[in-house]
Design brief:
It contains 19 helices and 29 strands. The longest helix is centred in the first third of the chain and has 17 residues. It is globular. With about 900 residues, it is of the alpha/beta class. Helix 1 packs across helix 11 and helix 4 packs antiparallel against helix 12. Strand 16 and strand 17 form a beta hairpin. The strands form eight sheets. A six-stranded mixed beta sheet has the order 1-2-3-4-6-9. The chain has a six-stranded mixed beta sheet with strand order 12-19-18-15-13-14, with helices on both faces. Strands 8-7-5-20 form a four-stranded mixed beta sheet, with no helix packed on it.
Length: about 900
């Protein structure tokens, strides 16, 4: 069991009870030969390459070393530990360092806008952004997000999300990421991180790793199943799937310079993610060359010393075993662990330096940065500064009501809302709508929520139009443009008649409206979110892939009475549409994938032809739920549920291709109002390409920079008399009795097997720079094609490149893997050339025996088209 962190329990000077936590066996799922223990935690700032990014990191580390060298132990601890839930203006607040004029760092959700505030944008979710397949727009969205966070005085944006990837289609938070393919997800992560950090805000890549469902992701969510001391689920996968699927997008975020990574709630191969030394030390900090800092998800840390030596650098929000308990795993416990020898001082130095280096990388000096001008806990002007404390705390101005929105964010939210719309059916080219006289709008998803757009906390209900899912990734609306409101204004200006019903269960009214209309538009939903909320009996994850609120019956009822029925699906992912999709009276189907505050404009733009639809599915829509390779585990059959990712690398379209399953709509699919032709393919292996089996080894690490810190006297860490003490506020100080009982013994702590403190001199063969070995990103293959607009309307085509690998003995490859895409806007009769460069990593697979990326020998095939199944052979090349 995890013991309550009581500082009274000190055995021979070593803090055992408060800092040990659980230790799990190093179990590997499948046939991987990797070890799950890796020590020590690599010291940041040790570089082996001269990439532009790593040189920028080197400069950031120089500044960080200078400041940390001036800090006391207590000041370093303050930088690495949160002050507690609701103990500051933000969802996460570090301790401040007044002596050095260094403020508390503000960390705030989330990946699609600023949580818990006002006068900010609700950006389209990651899934909608991924559906645009527009790299430039992904970057610009990151910029706009960063600008709004910066305007509110936030140092760290808790996003983007690239885990969950979407292994299970019902996964509650799939909509926060960019899609179910690691390459697409990786591009979204790369562009978003760069956009956020280019404006001076630290981006956080989350949730590392295998955070693929909401059920049982935390021990607390496993209560009630009859097990004493239940544990978070363990996601178990092999080393190849871990690298090629789940870690791939994180590698891209790190290659973009992500300053922070958030470790997940769940366990990975039976070890908690936030104390998994193999994940954090070996893969993240060595193999992927991560130079920033690892923060815990909020209460994902389940141990003290074990988490720190495993590579976790910051504890958030600071509380330990239970929510808002005010009892930390770190803070004073970290002070004590340093003084009694449980944690080496160089490791605490490294934690502090990594945190500061990330901020200096983005040219953010927190000492001169805008202070938070909002409160996450109230919208009134004045309130308690630490509302989570039962003590009487200071009272003052907490909200300045700063309008963070800009012309950039306004343009971005509107453009993505439109470009993310995916048209999957358009029978007889019925859309765009023409010469409408009488229209009926049917379904609650078209209209407003009676309590207002923010009527449910954390958007934890499905009422009215569905522009975002629920949970910590949700945002307060300044406005919400519903489809009905936008279309109704259009009816006013254009003169057609409109009638409506927002009652999903009043089928009689729906029939009457449908019969009296030229066109009937049915709006339906499917919602999901984070597991701390249950909405209509869905505990975060969707219970199934069915439409909510009688959706199937509503659609079939309307379609039986109107032969021009349009269905608009407002959804967090794919839905089962087999009950009605082949109905000939259903002329068009449009997916709106949680596109944020401008959902109504995006839908209207496409329906009426103000914009040509250019969204493409970032996931596969199956005919049957059983066609998917994985599903959410809804029942708990052991104290720690085991989720075996037995499908390996074969998720989403890779599985459908492998098993020859015909999807309803394939990954990458989407329709346009014009037509395109892709031709003149060319594929060529670079003449100077290094095609060795493995990439050249990276150079040696630079020597570690040690700050020559020394431990203070224990008496110097006792609470000062002039520091006010508020209940549940988390401090770095010890009591006098605690300080008196300390003995230093660096060998007394029960360290995990294999623990050592000797730094490696050579990076992992797959490492050596931010994101991995720089040679993995050398261009080896060039492919080109021409794309022409052969229709009568301007539009944009998403040209997609898929790669097929050689046949190798004992190595199974996907039929095809996405390895490139470009979105090209063209006028009628216009033609453009699109070019793709494939890297060594694009062509390689991860060999768990060699523990490295390997370039296979044999014949490769390259396909170029506009979906995972609609593509033509572009060419072949061989590597001997």
């Amino acid at each position: 069991m995890i013991l309550t962190p009581s500082l009274a329990l000190i055995i021979t000077g070593v803090l055992v009870a408060t800092l040990t936590g659980r230790t799990h066996s190093a179990r590997i799922y499948s046939n991987s030969t990797q070890k799950l223990e890796s020590f020590p935690s690599p010291i940041g700032g040790r570089l082996s390459s001269q990439t532009e990014l790593d040189l920028a990191w080197a400069d950031a580390y120089e500044q960080a070393w200078d400041l940390v060298s001036q800090m006391t132990l207590l000041e370093k601890v303050n930088l690495t530990s949160g002050t507690g839930w609701e103990m500051g203006p933000c969802v996460g607040n570090t301790g401040e360092i007044p002596r050095l004029n260094f403020p508390s760092l503000c960390l705030q959700d989330g990946p699609l806008g600023i949580r818990f505030t006002e006068l900010n944008s609700v950006f389209p979710a990651g899934l909608a952004t991924g559906a645009t397949w527009n790299k430039a727009l992904m970057y610009t969205r990151g910029q706009a997000l960063g600008q709004e966070f910066k305007a509110k005085g936030i140092n760290v944006l808790l996003g983007p999300s690239m885990g969950p990837l979407g292994r299970a289609p019902e996964g509650g938070r799939n909509w926060e990421g960019f899609g179910t393919d690691p390459y697409l997800q990786g591009i979204g992560a790369y562009e978003t991180v760069q956009g956020i950090q280019d404006v001076g805000v630290v981006a956080t890549a989350k949730h590392f790793l295998l955070n693929e469902q909401e059920h049982f992701r935390q021990a607390a969510e496993s209560s009630g199943f009859g097990y004493s001391d239940p544990m978070a689920y363990s996601g178990n996968t092999d080393g190849r799937a871990l690298r090629e699927i789940y870690a791939w997008p994180f590698a891209e975020a790190i290659r973009a310079g992500a300053g922070a990574v958030m470790c997940a709630y769940n366990a990975v191969n039976d070890t908690q993610a936030c104390e998994n030394s193999y994940l954090l030390n070996h893969i993240l900090k060595d193999e992927l060359g991560f130079q920033g800092y690892v923060m815990s998800d909020w209460l994902a840390q389940r141990s003290g010393v074990n988490s720190v030596i495993a590579g976790m650098d910051m504890s958030m929000p600071g509380d330990g075993e239970s929510w808002a308990d005010g009892i930390p795993f770190l803070a004073a416990n970290l002070t004590l662990a340093a003084l009694n020898g449980s944690i080496p001082l160089w490791r605490i130095d490294d934690m502090a330096v990594r945190i500061l280096a990330a901020h200096y990388l983005v040219k953010q000096n927190p000492r001169n940065y805008t202070k938070p001008n909002f409160s996450s806990w109230t919208l009134v002007d004045n309130d308690d500064l630490y509302p989570g404390s039962p003590s009487k705390t200071p009272y003052g101005l907490v909200n300045q009501h700063v309008d963070a929105r800009s012309s950039l964010s306004r343009r971005v939210t509107r453009q993505i809302a439109t470009e993310s719309m995916v048209l999957v059916k358009n029978q007889n080219s019925y859309l765009p709508l023409k010469s409408v006289k009488r229209m009926s709008i049917i379904g609650s998803a078209a209209g407003p929520f009676s309590l207002g757009p923010n009527g449910c906390e954390n958007r934890g209900c499905n009422n009215g139009t569905l522009a975002t899912g629920w949970g910590s990734g949700s945002v307060n609306y300044a406005y919400l443009a519903t489809p009905f409101e936008v279309i109704n204004m259009r009816a006013f200006s254009e003169g057609f008649g409109i009638d409506y019903s927002f009652d999903d269960y009043d089928l009689d009214s729906a029939t009457v409206l449908a019969e009296a209309s030229d066109v009937a538009i049915v709006f339906v939903t499917s919602d999901s979110g984070e597991g701390f909320l249950t909405v209509e009996d869905n505990l975060g994850d969707r219970n199934d892939l069915d439409l909510w609120h009688n959706g199937d019956e509503l659609i079939t009822t309307v379609a039986s009475s109107n032969n021009n029925t349009i269905v608009v699906i407002e959804s967090v992912g794919g839905v089962n549409m087999e009950a009605w999709i082949d109905n000939e009276n259903i002329t068009a189907v449009l997916y709106a994938l949680v596109p944020g505050q401008d959902i109504g404009f995006g839908i209207s733009d496409v329906l009426f032809g103000d914009a040509n639809p250019s969204g493409r599915l970032p996931f596969t829509v199956a005919r049957n739920k059983s066609d998917y390779p994985a599903t959410v585990e809804y029942t708990m059959t052991s104290r720690q549920p085991q989720l075996n990712f037995s499908e390996g690398i074969f998720i989403d379209y890779r599985h459908f291709d492998r098993e020859s399953i015909e999807p309803r709509y394939e990954f990458g699919f989407g329709m346009s109002y014009t037509t395109f032709e892709i031709s003149n393919f060319s594929v060529e292996l670079s003449s100077d390409a290094n095609t060795d089996l493995e990439a050249p080894l990276p150079g040696n690490y630079s020597n570690p920079t040690l700050l020559n810190s020394s431990l203070p006297n224990a008496t110097d860490t006792v609470y000062p008399d002039d520091i006010p003490r508020y209940k549940k506020f988390i401090y770095p100080y010890l009591t006098s009795s605690e300080a008196d009982g300390i003995k230093y013994d660096e060998d007394a702590y029960p360290y995990p097997s294999g623990y050592n403190t000797t730094q490696k001199s050579v990076p992992h063969p797959a490492g050596g720079a931010s994101g991995g070995n720089p040679a993995l990103f050398d261009y080896l293959v060039n492919a080109t094609a021409q794309v022409g607009n052969t229709g009568n309307l301007s539009g944009a085509e998403v040209v997609q490149l898929y790669l097929s690998y050689p046949d190798l003995l004992n190595v199974e490859f996907p039929v095809k893997s996405l390895r490139g895409f470009e979105k090209i806007s063209l006028q009628p009769n216009e033609t453009s050339t699109v070019q793709f460069w494939l890297t060594r990593k694009d062509l390689s697979y991860f060999d768990v025996v060699r523990d490295n990326w390997v370039l296979p020998r044999g014949n490769f095939s390259v396909y170029i088209g506009n979906s995972s199944r609609s593509n033509a052979l572009a060419g072949r090349f061989s590597i001997d």
